[in-house]
Amino acid sequence: MDSKTEQYTALGKRRKVLIVDDELINRELLGNALTDDYDIIYANDGEEALQKIYEYRSTLSLVLLDILMPKLSGIEVLKKKKEDPVIASIPVIVLTADQQSEVECLNLGAVDFIPKPYPQITIMKARINRTIELNEDRAIINTTERDPLTGLYNKNFFYSYCNQFDQYNINLPMDAMLADIHHFHVINERYGIAFGDKVLRLVADRLRDYVTPRNGIVCRNESDTFLIYCPHGMDYNEILDYVTSGLEEENPTNSQIRIRLGVYPNVDKLMVMERRFDRAKAAADTLRNSLSNAVAIYDDSLYQKDLFNEQLIAEFGKALEEGQFEVYYQPKYDITKEEPILSSAEALIRWKHPSYGLISPASFIPLFETNGLIYELDNFVWKSAARQIAEWKKRFGISVPVSVNVSRVDMHDPNLERVLCSIVEDNHISTKELLLEITESAYTRNSAQIIDTVKTLREKGFKVEMDDFGTGYSSLNMISKLPIDVLKVAKEFIDDAFESGRDTGMLEIMLDIADYLKVPVIAEGVETREQMLTLKELGCDVIQGYYFSKPVPALEFEKFISEKKSELDA
Ligand code: C2E
Ligand code: CA
Question: Which residue lies with its CA nearest to atom 4 of ligand 1?
Fold first, then answer.
């Protein structure tokens, strides 16, 4: 609340209100009523109104706007104002005798109405006051430099403070670091948001206590990620120990809360601040599957990886043209019956590079997601898979549905539905045969739009599998509203469950969620018979993994179809 007081004293003077009305009598009536409390300026028509709004945009607190006016109507003014971000946030109260236009005005950004003939002065003043206050509060919240939960700087302020710090300490070697909490969303889900918030606050406090006395700056980036900018020479393991020892005292859970730290040491000061933290993140990402607290340093190998990435991007177009990409297929088996039976396949892309050999999609998919190349590549995979489904159907007389991966980026393509439908039509297959895997993390960002897209796709008959379930940040509440047909539990949960000590607790939570949603579960990355049997016992429906087969070229996959066909024929 400190910032609010600061803001008010900073303003310190009377607020400016623009009255727009073509009738002198109305302008005078309103002006006289308000002149004791506000600085009043006037405009006689819409054109003049816009001109005044621009002229006074940095000090204008409110516009009182008539609708029926010559030259430019109030509606036109609202439209133009809404389109220009420079003036869009100045609040407008519409003065009108016409209730019909109220909805239109609201849609165009008006915040309130004062009916004509004007009500009592005290009522008008109260509405005007409240509008101005609400708008100022919102502006303060938007620009506040602190994250309300942890009290740390928010990202924008953090970057500008880091830059300021550099200006005063040109020759001081600095480190950029990123810290985050392993499986934080699961902690949230299992122990509740209040506990999750407490963990975030504890981590924030400990980081600040450690870093600030050493001339460092900390911020909360998003969710469970923290950024730290500090003079080079700190003991990274000591930071982690300090943070986690603070957590141990408060932790009611059996398992340790683990923190990982990515460090880009001795930063290149010619590089923009954001990129320095990209490097810290690249280092932290190498720890994705680490089971203990850990530190990773951005080093030459990561630098080489940056160079490698640039090369892959440069070569992509030619590689696609020359047929260096090939779709592999991995079987998924239904294990609900006595004997496992082939249910479908997943299409997984491979790059057969002339000098590097087979490149795993893990090295290029995330990269292509950052620069739009993924559209072209996924399109190629979807078409290949659809063609393959049709061909197998013709040759074997049975349908083997194939799931394709739909990247988070594809989900924002307004043509997605049309593209997928025409692929299905062109290959004379049904939408039920081309299954769509959409990663859970797609749902968490801009979820309303994604949910709409998924709904439309399902209306067209596509079946949607939620991929990598457990690795996103969905809350149980949100998941229960999601339109999906299948949950695919991420491999890391299978790994965790069968790692040392064999704790299937987390896996059982996933299965309970699926049960609650009444959708079947696919387990990915199942490698042994023991895992398969345990999963079967726990109620898992479908299994995909090396236990049955690695992803293989289409031709090799045909043996699984033949087997199924002979079982069906038998
Ligand atoms: P994903 O969708 O989670 O795919 C499953 C990954 O797990 C595949 O890796 C698969 O080969 C691997 N896998 C399956 N069973 C086992 C197992 O038993 N043990 C182990 N260790 N691994 C197993 P892959 O093919 O390297 O693909 C990696 C990721 O790349 C995929 O993860 C997916 O997110 C992405 N990807 C692959 N192909 C495409 C594509 O055509 N389009 C898009 N957008 N993404 C793709
Ligand atoms: Ca997948």
Answer: 348
